[in-house]
Amino acid sequence: MSLVLEGFLNTVALTVLSFAVALLVGLLVAVLRIVPVPLLRGAGAVYVEVWRNVPLLAWLVLFVFGLPEVGVTMPLFWTACTAIALYEAAFVAEALRSGVRSVASGQGEAARALGLSFRQSLWHVVLPQALKRVVQPLANIAIALTMATALAGVVGVVDMTRAAQRINLELAQPLLVFTGVGLCYLVMAAGIGFGARALERRLA
Amino acid sequence: MFDAPGPRFRRRVFWVSAVSAVVLLGLLALGLRQFASNGQLDPVRWRPYLTWPVWRYLLGGLWSTVVAACATGVLAMAGGLLLALRPNRFTRAYAEVMRTVPVLLLVYVMLFVLPSFGVNLPLFWKLVVPLALSHAASCAVIFRAGVGSVDPGQREAGLALGMPDGVVTRFVVLPQAVRHMTPLLVTQAVSLLKDTSLGYVVSYAELLFNGRVLANYNGLLVQTFIVVALVYLVVNLALSRLAHRLEAARARTAR
């Protein structure tokens, strides 16, 4: 039974920590992609394209087995966490960028036309509205991230899916075990969706 | 929203560019030094990747990846169509479950649960069936959005001209819906191609699994997986570009 708890807690911890890091890195990359400096824009675009177009499992394998070979050793949990966070950061960056862009093209230009400065229109007009618009896409990314943490089980982190597989070997109650774990994921996703809707209502 | 850049702004952009170039190059140098000091840049470790047998093996993996992705794509589109045609409580629940349950869990069900009930599919299907089940839900969403994106006025205009309902659907609504859906479907193909890397788990000999076998054989772990990642990158970048082109073409003709 302790294995169930360990798996569940690991999945929750992986989700929360890597989403927090993904938000920070994603914000940074989104800013890089918006600033009017071509070099930084290019760097942001390269980051997004490279991370988005390679499977997460390949990144996990590369990080978990490859990093020790180049002399970077971290605990397994943190290595997996870093890989997942950097991968999802690319999606976060895209969500943030398209959120800001969708507002900036109409509302932002109107604010500029009314005589607000660039900074004023960004701070008072674009960002408050963009914030509201990115909540739903970010919640979707958080749900995708919850699912993605299952892949950490493949490289050795004892997460919920991995725990289920091991318990199944002992108990031989496959239907019960896997349905239970599936329900756990459903509950987590429902929680994220509920939180996102509450947040959206607060911002509205 | 930006002002047209003046001379002072242009100077500032220049300096920011210079500083960030130094920082980026510094990071790159740091990474390379870390690789070099652990002997990972040794030409001996990279030379195998200039030889044909190694590439033949990896490209064989890529071929299996593409085959699995195509099979999954066909099944997922068929399933998506079925789901999209009948929006009811069951299909909505199905989509919701598939959006939240990891594909890996479905793969494990295929690997560990079904055999105990006497269903033991070949490896290929153990990978393809769970992927198709999960991507069918995404395809259904795309199909529904595609049909929904066509202005209802188009259908009404067709009916007003006296066309039968089937003809309107076939010649007025669907062509426009398909043009709207194609970029989304190509983007979905990228995500599908990435998901076939789960072959690593079921031991289906696709690209990532072949990478693991190769790394076990020649001991060049870092190099092998970097090359594998590059292959994924090239293929998926090409697909992403295609999606971008299609989207741009659609936006042009929509006006």
UniProtKB/TrEMBL annotation, chain A:
It comes from the Bacteria. Gene3D superfamilies: MetI-like. It is found in: Cell membrane. It holds the Pfam family BPD_transp_1. Residues 8-188 form the ABC transmembrane type-1 domain. CDD domains: TM_PBP2. It is a multi-pass membrane protein. The keyword Membrane applies. The chain crosses the membrane at residues 12-32, 138-158, 178-199. InterPro entries: AA_ABC_transptr_permease_3TM, ArtM/GltK/GlnP/TcyL/YhdX-like, MetI-like, MetI-like_sf. Keywords: Amino-acid transport, Cell membrane, Membrane, Transmembrane, Transmembrane helix, Transport. PANTHER family: L-CYSTINE TRANSPORT SYSTEM PERMEASE PROTEIN TCYL, MEMBRANE COMPONENT OF AMINO ACID ABC TRANSPORTER. NCBIfam families: HEQRo_perm_3TM (TIGR01726). Belongs to the binding-protein-dependent transport system permease family. This is Amino acid ABC transporter permease.
UniProtKB/TrEMBL annotation, chain B:
It holds the Pfam family BPD_transp_1. The keyword Repressor does not apply. Keywords: Membrane, Transmembrane, Transmembrane helix, Transport. It is found in: Cell membrane; Membrane. The chain crosses the membrane at residues 12-35, 55-85, 97-117, 220-239. InterPro entries: ArtM/GltK/GlnP/TcyL/YhdX-like (IPR043429), MetI-like (IPR000515), MetI-like_sf (IPR035906). Residues 58-243 form the ABC transmembrane type-1 domain. Coiled coil: none annotated. It is a multi-pass membrane protein. It comes from the Bacteria. Belongs to the binding-protein-dependent transport system permease family. This is Amino acid ABC transporter permease.
